């Protein structure tokens, strides 16, 4: 297939030797390496590219860059596609496949366009005024509205694209590689500053690539290449094309997304200073049917011709309020197209060389566009006379808007309205400390000024950075073929006459009438106007519409634009893919799981794991060939501990060593029960409160040596307890001489529990005396096991005779296997968290997170008696507050199933009557349901406002439909005197 | 990104630190003697300024030191910082 | 004033929409009002509306330093729910939910309250127990909720990664069907229009600079537009509460923090319900326009501006893609922040103060939007009767001294930890 709109031209960015084939809406086309999808479509004469959001109006390509509101497509295989991409930003590649969005059955014949019939009703905010009756019907109306909304379709298959992240530091970040940016980067780089130069386009040079200009005696393209060559030769300079700075964050941080062949890279750049050389974006004009395919921005046409050799029409009309569009007329004629007329709003046209024979109409307006799917003619009005001009392209220019978004991220006070631009520009050349604005985005108009500002910004930045002096960059000589044209625009962007819709925001279909309606109804703050009409809220973020909208609002309110003000500028500057923001840290790399040193053994032996904080711990062991359920396996494991002996991997419990002259005093202030006073080689169970009096964590404190203690914490609170201790040691009691060291990962710890545990231990360490006298309950001894230091504790969570044995982490597996071997004659079995839960519930031991949830006091859970002495400890003062001591607080109680059989449901509420579906007052809740092998009966712990033991309640779980009548008991069901663990 | 100049490690991204909240009020030396109202003020009442705020940060992924930082809650400039004894603080 | 309906819409369409009356009239302050409410956000406007409608007090001004509805009512993620564990929080939001259910009709303004359900995901048996704990507490008090199986979740939210070997495998979930979303701006506009219709003055761009007292009693406010007399003054100013209370020497148990949210580019419907994931406090829903709205954790340190930092957004998006692995190519279009007035127990303050005639409604943390109608209703009753309404009793200021904190989560006085 030929490319009817492609011409030969010097200095193009495309490579004609490399033809590429691509498909758009199922049809195959040809383009060239270097094309964008938009330029390739225009080369093939394709103007109709998409449908609009609300009215499904046919839409074409308006621009040649990031500001494109219309030409949104889906790219790639359906399901794994990228939605809502701008055709003007997609580099063409061989085999590219793209589709239009928001149309059915086809782009040309879109049934959705029928909505236009109802468009008189569909004004701004119409949905706030209707769909209210009858009240139940909204959900049905809404379904229809939701379907009609949305642009592309969300991808549905797992995204396999590659995303990387880089953290970078530089002296100077230069945003934009147009004339100003190139000069700023060169100036600073010559003074040895570390520079990162970025541009969102693949081809660098910015506006130079669309102008007919010679710089320093070279063509613009040659000059850009030479300048870049100098920069790229320096090791201190990094040039990043196809990279968008999407946000400016505090303390000199910028977020950048780079598009590469491989994928996307998110750069977090810390720049000591930055230069904004972001240029300006052209605005369209607002007139009747200004959205027709074939209505394009004048500057974009220059770019299509001069960069891509694409002439989007044969016979063009131009509609402008400023001089810059006259350059488009020259460019079109050079490219062999006819310029039917230049329609200029202003009183006087500039005298522009080379356009003597073009009809120029002043004080003229376009009042209509004919051709629904492509421009056929424009209707113009000069004075009171109307005329029709046949054309297939309408080039519009409503002036230029400096791109100041990054300066305004963080506040708008850096901006001031400038009448010549008809837009906001920075208040000065360093509007934010450390950030220079330069070139067109700083209000510079002529190329010489832009280049000069670039040099000045680079020098100023280098000076502020303290860089050594170097030969300054000389301001290059500039020669414009045919003279330079100013972007200064007349303060009018809107044509009052005409019958069609006048779009201000093309993507969201916001018209002048919508803005007027909002104002009429009292939505007058610019933020109200924006939100009521959705002006500027599309994926183009109002880049071509905001200023025109503000101008119309100001005019209607009789205010100045700066009185109306802008809406807030928010990151990102252009949409950023979620994948790029996440990088590689999502999915399995999010919160990387931690595993105990014995983990692999558990895996090999059928463990089913459950998360505990960031750790994975065995919940139970599924023995091969047994086919047991969780409950069956856990009951068997628990019973084995009660009857024989079991081992559990408790390596994940937090372990912190506390040393120093004042370690005991420090621990006394930390725990409610003066754990610092524990005897040498003894362990003590301790409870910590938060300063507000509620229980924070529990564990054991062991005195390893004089002034040296080891404390254990719960698995989930290990980090929080460490931080809590460090805080109080460093900031509250710095006078205490204490050293705190987390040692969790250094040790593997195995709990050995059950009546036979002493025999197993004796077999494991035949040389050690492990008798009750030598190692009594709550005793501690350091021993040597297989040549390594081993810590032996006699502590019990299960309520049985039990030990905890700690070895250096890499010996964990050896210990585990040795225990299994030593315990084999005694019927040893490993047990998991579920069995541990059964055992501890039976014993009335509590768990942080379930029974203790940050809202209970020691008294609530029966531990008030542990409080010792009169000295201060963290939380003591708070416990004296009235609400923490009053009667009627829920307290810890035990429950047994009244019939001895019905399981007590998990997470049940406690109520007075059997649950029938009628709401009842809650009397408390079950915190830990379990089963007692000893009582052979379902049991539970709970927090309840109940008085007497023996009372009867219902534990109900309406969610699961379970309930059980329960009898209140003491919260300990097994060996209440603790004879077994002491024996 | 908020950057915190740790006096021990140098300037780092705030993501290396853990926030510890308002540092205006020291823990009373003898809590048993303070009134419920005073205790409430210590536990719960906050100046909540739009401006300079004294606050705790811990360099959790660094030296693990707790720091007292004076930060402006509007500009986010770190005005000064130091350890426990900081009164006016060292200039950052 | 024109009643909104499909008929009035057609009638006005025929006349080119040239005759719609002002929905939001702009007025200048009078010298004196019975009640001045500081803060023309959702809560302040709702309180003014209910004062006028339920208590017949119409000589009311709502004043705001900026544009009406420009604070958190314009910045939240629009979620409405009552699925709380704590009975006081549940009772309050349940009252709100009942008001939400008739709000469009009540205000004659379509606030698009859409009961699309909120699904809380569980990723372990422990988390299912936690959800059930909350769900059973809700059910026993008559607030309906339901557990969902993995299959039911897959059916409702097909884009979720429900594979068993996912990083956060989905083990189940819980849904409150009556929960959903509402069009946040419309709530402010709807209350403003309805209140104005009843005679309430809404005064924008009027900053309070002082609270005038005489003999320990409020007599008015000083503003950037002059002195305004008032027998009763209510503060409903979210992040501005501390500064306002300081004017009468009152220090509040509040801290300002920043909560960020973002939306993706609009896509065709893929997510019907609101989905939340407690491990990282992530939530997501899809607007009627097609944008996916993502919310996450606080920025984590005191902040008096609405400008956030990048790491919290990155964290939010990491969670999003872990749960929804197909959405990597979808693009984030807009991000923003809101200053939330976090209280020391994560629950609001709705209370009289030590100054006679001065009332405070603050500390709504993350949850102000969902409570809007009830906060307005209860605050109106408090102002009108000078007695603490039943629903407000747990939320008075004195709870901090007594220790009777209302903690949905037990993090203690560390507001940045609350969700």
UniProtKB/TrEMBL annotation, chain A:
Residues 598-868 form the GCVT N-terminal domain. Keywords: Aminotransferase, Oxidoreductase, Transferase. Residues 171-443 form the FAD/NAD(P)-binding domain. SUPFAM superfamilies: Aminomethyltransferase beta-barrel domain (SSF101790), FAD/NAD(P)-binding domain (SSF51905), Folate-binding domain (SSF103025). Residues 891-975 form the Aminomethyltransferase C-terminal domain. Belongs to the GcvT family. It comes from Litchfieldella qijiaojingensis. This is Sarcosine oxidase subunit alpha. Residues 500-584 form the SoxA A3 domain. Transmembrane segments: none annotated. Pfam families: Fer2_4 (PF13510), GCV_T (PF01571), GCV_T_C (PF08669), Pyr_redox_2 (PF07992), SO_alpha_A3 (PF17806).
From TrEMBL, chain B:
Gene3D superfamilies: Folate-binding superfamily. It comes from the Bacteria. InterPro entries: SoxD, SoxD_sf. This is Sarcosine oxidase subunit delta. It comes from Litchfieldella qijiaojingensis. The lineage of its organism: Bacteria, Pseudomonadati, Pseudomonadota, Gammaproteobacteria, Oceanospirillales.
From TrEMBL, chain C:
Its main location: cytoplasm. Its EC number is 1.5.3.24. It catalyses: sarcosine + (6S)-5,6,7,8-tetrahydrofolate + O2 = (6R)-5,10-methylene-5,6,7,8-tetrahydrofolate + glycine + H2O2; sarcosine + O2 + H2O = formaldehyde + glycine + H2O2. The keyword Oxidoreductase applies. It is found in: Cytoplasm. Its cofactor is FMN; FAD. Keywords: Cytoplasm, FAD, Flavoprotein, FMN, Nucleotide-binding, Oxidoreductase. Residues 35-79 form the Rhodanese domain. It is an enzyme of class 1 (oxidoreductase). Gene3D superfamilies: D-Amino Acid Oxidase, subunit A, domain 2, FAD/NAD(P)-binding domain. The keyword Nucleus does not apply. It holds the Pfam family DAO. SUPFAM superfamilies: FAD-linked reductases, C-terminal domain, FAD/NAD(P)-binding domain. NCBIfam families: soxB. PANTHER family: FAD-DEPENDENT OXIDOREDUCTASE DOMAIN-CONTAINING PROTEIN 1 (PTHR13847:SF287), SARCOSINE DEHYDROGENASE-RELATED (PTHR13847). Belongs to the SoxB family. This is Sarcosine oxidase subunit beta. It comes from Litchfieldella qijiaojingensis. The gene is soxB.
